[in-house]
Amino acid sequence: MKVIVKNNHKEVSKEAADIFEMEIRNNPKTILGLATGSTPIGMYKELIKRHNEEGLDFSSVTTFNLDEYLGLDPNNPNSYRYFMNQELFNHINIPIENTHVPLGEEDKAEISCKVYDSMIQEMGGIKLQVLGIGSNGHIAFNEPGERLSANTSIVDLTNETIQDNARFFDSIDEVPKKAISMGMGSILKAEKIVLIASGENKAPAIAKLLNEPYISTYLPVSFLLAHKDVTIICDEDAYSLVK
What we know:
- This protein is of the alpha/beta class.
- The chain has 8 helices and 10 strands.
- The chain has helices at 9-26, 41-54, 80-87, 106-122, 159-165, 184-188, 203-211, 236-239, and strands spanning 2-6, 31-34, 62-65, 67-69, 99-100, 128-131, 153-156, 178-181, 192-197, 230-235.
- Helix 2 (41-54) links the parallel strand 2 (31-34) and strand 3.
- The protein is globular.
- The relative contact order is 0.18.
């Protein structure tokens, strides 16, 4: 596990974008795993800038997103499909059919869970996966608990995660209580993983991961310790509690 500490979120975003740019330029047909939330937005802006100013080409890239809220259709402004279109896909030259986000509509969710992992593996597997980290140590929507799902599945969100995500909604009552999420087994199949973290609220989770190197279902991010190629990029605030 490689750890890179930068001064601030902007520098974290540029460092992560460097890794993704190198992957795309070395393998134009690469398969990328993407994440939502506020943390990766800076990286996406960097990649858009490099597309516009340096010709970074996404035309043959395929992407798979980690998760989606249950009960939201793709046109809902709070859905992760909508988020990805607005924050990245609409601003680069990636064919929309090459971008994959689990289907959040309740009548399609079960089918989406069953086929999502198979689609990824049939296309050759994710080569580079970006992850954020929740304040409670969750990655994607794999929440702390007695057990974690291995495969893509419907999961219950903890109160802590609902509180964290309430800032994206008009009220906390609008935050979905369930989501579709790639499981830990799905995530760990990626060839390379980049985890980015920024801000003091992420410091306790980063400290638990790096100060106490054990694997626990109560700290889902700790499963990254079992992966062969993980890079953690965090700012000084997120790293502040590491001994």
